[in-house]
Amino acid sequence: MSLPVVIKRARHAKDLIDRDFDRLNLVDRYARGAHRAPWMPAKANAEFKDLVKRSIVNVSSLAVEAPLNALRVQGFRKPGSGENANEWAFWQKNRLDERQNAVHRAALTSGAAYVVVTPDPRKGRREPAIRAYDAISTVAVYTDPAWDEFPVYALHVPEQQPDEDRTVGFLWDDVARHTVDLDAEPESAVLASEPHGMGVCPVVRFSPAVDLRGRTRGLVEPLIVSQDRLNQQTLSLLLNEHWGAHAIRFATGLAPAERLDPETGDPVRDPETGEPVYDVPSLDPSTLLMAPNSDAKFGQLPAMPTGDLLASRRQTVEEIMGLADVPPHYLAGSNLVNLSADALAAAETSFKRFLSTLQDSLGESWESVFRLCALVAGRGEIEQDESQVEWAEKATRSLAQAADAMVKLMQQGVPLSVALRKVPGFSQADIDEAVKAAEEAARKAEQAEAEALKQQKEASGGVDSQNRRDPSGGGRVPARAGSARR
């Protein structure tokens, strides 16, 4: 490939990153709780501004955190196999038990995340190195973005640049990883090219959903408008509670008291006008107010109600939970008290369907990662096989329900290794240990049964107790044979 083509692709991809940079940064801010401030007057004082800061309630982050807690890959194997595929070893070596959460969080937040699989030069050409990047600084370009498994090329531009005088990016295609200076002239823009020998662009896109036009959208962006409304309602509630939730006392017609010098007792006068300085009467509950003037009046303004503000705010929270497909008790736990496991499962029905959709989409992407690992390890060409990602079971069910379901499945002939996957909290190591223990118990039971039959035969003196025949072939043994003579 000629160098100008590499530069053309890199600059085109950089334009795509710049196009979506502001939008994806805003989404990232809302996921982290750094929201746009609610509206406030231009001349707001410090007290008002502090209430604005306290009005931010980051409910939109639940759209990511709730499904993220239920998305955990725990195996990669072919149907019917009792062990993980060979590629699972690369998962462990790249510490993806921990790092998979970062990939899932970036994909759910921004709508896309990217995983790159290339030979690790530090460990040899047969060891894959797996790295992940978010969509804010990375983009992949496809021939058909809705159907293609791998892109034509992809570009990552690190946020932290080692050299302030130039912008360095890394472009992957089906030949190599190119280090590119995006600000240099085409003749000197390619700083290095490292062939990877993969035959395809080794980049896999992770997304919760991709439409037929190749567009992706995360789970936070649809909630931004509702989240802004919730923050504004929270600010109104705080203002009401701070200044209007208590009765306000007032008095009219009071004669102000002159301020006296504590040392001399003389009236204090304004140094500029020479007029006496008066103290504003205190209206706190500990002060007794008296007025010699018969026209003086005392009273109080009633406290402002907060019920309507709370109801409006609660409705917005329920709207956000509905848009995010998150069960309401994940946030409003006080509204669901002492619910049974069946009631909780019913409340999560829609959420479980949503999780199934996410597992289908993200699982296909992890399977593509494993196929790239197999290619790096020299185990064959990239092809769609029957190997599948296994997700940990994290449904909201009681242990009794899970045990009952497991027993019913085994009664229908489902293997123990499959039935145990329906038990919440069981890892693959737990399942393997349980299956091994069950097989060992069955083997010992067979040995005990065989030993018991052997001892029974020896105790009967070699006589077959079923037909009472002499083992030597002498015919049926009389019923009273061998009994003592009287």
Numbering strands along the chain, what is their spatial order in the largest sheet?
4-5-6-7-8
Largest sheet: 5 strands, antiparallel
Please tell me the overall pLDDT.
82
Helix/strand structural class: alpha+beta
What general outline do the C-alpha atoms trace? flat
Q: Please report the number of helical segments.
A: 12
| H/E element sequence | HHHEHHEEEEEEEEHEEEEHHHEHHH
Distance between the termini: 111 Å
Gyration radius, in Å: 37 Å
Query: Beta-sheet strand percentage?
Result: 5-15%
Region (Disordered): 442-486
Pfam families: SPP1_portal
InterPro entries: Portal_protein_SPP1_Gp6-like (IPR021145)
Protein name: Phage portal protein
Question: What would your notes on this structure say?
Answer:
- The structure is a single chain.
- The chain has helices at 3-32, 46-54, 62-68, 88-93, 96-110, 224-244, 307-324, 341-347, 349-376, 399-411, 416-419, 428-459, and strands spanning 73-77, 113-119, 128-134, 138-141, 153-156, 168-172, 176-181, 190-195, 203-206, 248-252, 257-258, 278-279, 297-301, 388-391.
- It is built from twelve helices and 14 strands.
- Among the domains are: 3-41 and 55-220, no CATH class; 397-463, no CATH class.
- Mean pLDDT is 82; it is low at 479-486.
- It has 486 residues and is of the alpha+beta class.
- 39% of the residues lie in helices and 14% in strands.
- It has a five-stranded antiparallel beta sheet with strand order 4-5-6-7-8, covered by helices on one side.
